Amino acid sequence: MVAHRFVVGQSVRLSDRRGLSSKAAETYRVTRTLPARDNSPQYRIRSDAESYERVAKEDILEAAEEAHARDPSAIH
User: Fold this and answer.
1) pLDDT of amino acid 70
2) Cβ–Cβ < 8 Å for 43, 58
3) 75: in domain
4) What pLDDT score was predicted for residue 23?
5) Residue 5 maps to a domain
6) Under 8 Å between Cβ of 20 and 60
7) Helix (H, G, I), strand (E, B) or coil at 60
8) Is residue 54 part of a domain?
9) Can you give the pLDDT at residue 61?
10) One-letter-per-residue 3-state SS of the chain
11) Domain residues for 21?
12) Which among 57, 55, 14, 54 is positioned nearest to 37, based on CA atoms?
């Protein structure tokens, strides 16, 4: 069994936004952990900007805090 890296309630971002509309949310909240698929844990994620949840594999997610720290344009 593969351990989940993210926990319910944690803020995450999609590391690969190819194929998403430009209006797709930037930040999501993990609402539920799901069993692994192709040896990668899965999650249900939701944004307040969307009326539905998405399912995403762990290998395309990153913690929102990590993504923010790597973005040099996000200087306060």
Assistant:
1) 55
2) yes
3) no
4) 67
5) no
6) no
7) helix
8) yes
9) 94
10) CCCCCCCCCCEEEECCCCCCCCCCCCCEEEEEEEEEECCEEEEEEECCCCCCEEEEEHHHEEEHHHHHHHCCCCCC
11) 11-70
12) 57
Residue-wise pLDDT tens digits, 13-68: 988 777 777 667 789 999 999 999 999 999 999 998 889 999 999 999 999 986 55
Please count the CA atoms within 13 angstroms of the CA of 41 that sit on its side-chain side: 17
Which tokens is 45 given?
């994620």
pTM attached to this predicted model: 0.77
pLDDT score of 76: 42
Number of compact structural domains in the chain: 1
Q: Answer whether residue 76 is part of any domain.
A: no
Residues ≥6 apart with Cβ < 8 Å to 19: none
The pair of three-digit structure tokens given for residue 34, joined into one six-digit string:
């799901």
**Other C-beta atoms lying within 10 Å of the C-beta of residue 63:** 14
Task: Please say if the pLDDT value at position 71 is more than 60.
Answer: no
User: Which token pair is 5?
Assistant: 């890296």
